[in-house]
């Protein structure tokens, strides 16, 4: 049953966080260079906690065109991003821009129906700030989904790639959602990033996809995030192929880095919405229309897979620090 759509959020510390306040916090949060302090994130978390009875321990981030999963939740509380204090807003087609808290097969989950990308003008820490909000609400396992272009020539459009590792290209260039003063309440200054994508969850999922009839379309591979919003040139794609990338997108890595920093267990998959074009002699072009069309076509299977992963997560019952 749909419960309510919240409309009356307040700006809260938003003015303060953007430099408009008068307390000493002002000096530490004066621009996009500096992640929101703990208190600002806590305000967003407390806002949501005070308006839902549910206490989700599992978070979901829906990629381009993949937000229909949020429609499957029962007993939903819906919060458009512009009603949540301190939240950015979604500006991309296929990202509804709402936080949906509800139950899926009896399990409480909070689901971002749409995410934030760096090409929208957001710094990486702001793209990933909802993950910290989830953390302060009690979430300790995160399912991240995205639409991605297939680089691996064995892949087909519509395949689902379980992410086993990523290449943090922005990190190579000195940018990171963790750039700036480290807050030990989330995690250490230098977090490890091997096994970022939980091995047990990947193994269990791979064992069980046969029961869903998805064994022929589920793959594993390496994801790279580029800044976008341009799709890749042929030369760029050739470079990515050489360094072992299987799929390319413009998201996910900042969210996963922040989730791992604060001890969350992470599972992520890419829907291969298009095959990257690596020939010069062609009129074909990558397009967001194709991305959304494929995502819409593959909704049912993606929802089946997401339900399976959420079931595995809830049965395993993970808490930060368990590994
Ligand atoms: O990663 P998600 O949000 O699924 O979206 C992907 O699709 C868009 C490009 O078509 C880019 O935003 C890319 O990152």
Could you walk me through the main structural features you see in this protein, from its secondary elements to its overall organization?
- By secondary structure, the protein is α/β, with parallel strands linked by helices.
- It has one domain (2-316): Nucleoside phosphorylase domain (Rossmann fold, 3-Layer(aba) Sandwich).
- The protein contains 12 helices and 10 strands.
- A hairpin with a 2-residue loop joins strand 4 and strand 5.
- The radius of gyration is 19 Å and the shape is globular.
- Bound molecules: 1-O-phosphono-alpha-D-ribofuranose (R1P).
- 1-O-phosphono-alpha-D-ribofuranose (R1P) is lined by residues 63-64, 92, 115, 117, 146-147, 228, 249-251, 288, 291.
- It comes from Petrolisthes manimaculis.
- The purine nucleoside phosphorylases catalyze the phosphorolytic breakdown of the N-glycosidic bond in the beta-(deoxy)ribonucleoside molecules, with the formation of the corresponding free purine bases and pentose-1-phosphate.
Question: What structural class do you assign from the helix and strand content?
Answer: alpha/beta
Please identify which CATH superfamily we are dealing with.
Nucleoside phosphorylase domain
How would you describe the shape?
globular
Q: Unreliable stretches, pLDDT < 50, 5 or more residues?
A: 7-30
Q: What is the third-level CATH name, the topology? A: Rossmann fold
Mean pLDDT: 90
**What is the gyration radius calculated from CA atoms?**
19 Å
The total tally of domains equals 1
What's the total count of β strands? 10
Helix count? Answer: 12
Order of helices and strands, N to C? EHHHEHEEEHHEEHHEHEHEHH
What proportion strand? 15-25%
Q: Which class in CATH terms? A: Alpha Beta
Binding site for a purine D-ribonucleoside: 232, 274
Domain Nucleoside phosphorylase: 57-310
Pfam family, one: PNP_UDP_1
Family: Belongs to the PNP/MTAP phosphorylase family.
